[in-house]
Amino acid sequence: MSNNWKSDLVRAHRWMRHGGYPSVNDGWEKLVTKLVDDISEIVERDNLNEFQVAQVKEKFGTLRFYCYGGTDEIHALIEAAEEESGRICEDCGKPGRLMTGGPWIHTACPDHEGDDR
Q1: Which of 53, 104, 101 is nearest to 81 (CA)?
Q2: Distance CA 114, CA 52 (A)
Q3: Is 18 inside a domain boundary?
Q4: Disulfide: which of 4, 12, 49, 105 matches 61 by Cβ 3.0-4.6 Å?
C-alpha cells in the first residue's frame, strides 16, 4: 500500500466505495487491510454482489466495521477484528490497551497513552 492506504483500499474493492473509506488512524492499517482482504476472498468466492461496506471507523476506542449483505463468516471476521483493535495502538500499531481514564476512550501503547484526543 502507498502512503494513502485508505484510498488504495477503497479503490481496490468496489464494495467499499459506497461508504467504506476508513476513518481510523494509521496504527490500524494492517488490521483493517487484513480484514478487507479476508472479506474480499469471501465476497468473490460466494459471489456476494449485494455486499457493501457502510462505514469503517473508531468508536469508543475500538474498530467499527458496518456492512450490508454480509454472511455469518464475514460477521465473525469483523467481530474478531473489532475485538483485536482493542489491543492495537490506533496511532502506531504497537501492542496497546483500551484507555478509559481521560476525556476520550482510545486504544494506545505506552508511547501514546497520554496523547490528547
Answers
A1: 53
A2: 36
A3: yes
A4: 105
Burial category of 49 from C-beta neighbours within 10 Å (exposed 0-12, middle 13-18, buried 19 and up) = exposed
| Residue 59, strand partner residues | 62
- Better pLDDT: 43 or 113: 43
Q: Number of structural domains, the chain?
A: 1
Tens-place pLDDT, residues 57-112: 999 999 999 999 999 999 999 999 999 999 999 999 999 999 988 788 999 999 99
Please give the Cα distance from 44 to 21 (Å, whole number). Answer: 20
Query: Cell numbers at residue 90, please?
Result: 490506533
% of residues, the chain, pLDDT over 90: 85
- The amino acid at 101: G
- On whether residue 84 sits in a domain, the answer given is yes
Residue in the block written with cell 490497551: 97
Q: What is the Cα–Cα distance from 12 to 80, expressed in whole angstroms?
A: 23
